[in-house]
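Sequence in, structure out. First:
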Amino acid sequence: MAPHCVGAALDLTLIDTDGVELDMGGAVNGHRTGDEKYCPLDDSGLSDQARHNCNLLARAMGGAGFVNYPTEWWHWSYGDRYWALISKADSAIYGPA
């Protein structure tokens, strides 16, 4: 099953206290809008502010046990096959029944 459909993956960004999205370098799902250049979490072309925000997101999500799909800064997984591979878990938590 697809990770998003079973709740094992989510796409997210950061916002400020007014609900305004912070600069992450590119848009969520930027690969669908022609913004592929800034999709990777560690893209070398990020501004200092975007790099800071991406690092903040990575620390928060990584600290909670999520893993990032590196070509999409917004995509974080917990319990799917990719998570199991990266975290060296014995198996995925979510999958076909």
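Second:
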Amino acid sequence: MSSDSLGSAHPAAERSSWGVAFITTFTTVFLAELGDKTQLAALLLSAQSGRPLQVFLGASLALICSSLVGVLLGRWLARVMPAQQLERLAGGLMVALGLWLGRQAVLHLVAPAPSLPPLS
């Protein structure tokens, strides 16, 4: 019997699927993070502190930790619900978040928050 008939994949196929998952994840996260508020915060912190290496290390560690939370939560959710339902839930959450942020932006444009008086 071949290994295919036993249900196991060839080592080359396993490496290929690992590479596809890695490249897809890297590209998706890299593009999603470009120009977002996290990158802008790192830019400002680096400019203000004059310590780009420390800002890079801190921002990298923070992204790793937040990604770990997402990976662990995703793994758990994959065990408790079907993939199609998980995709719909994620899509619904993204749409809801977009609508909420859009509403906040419109409310801010219509009635800007009052400025606070000086503390002293």
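Remark: Residues 45 and 55 are 7 Å apart (CA to CA).
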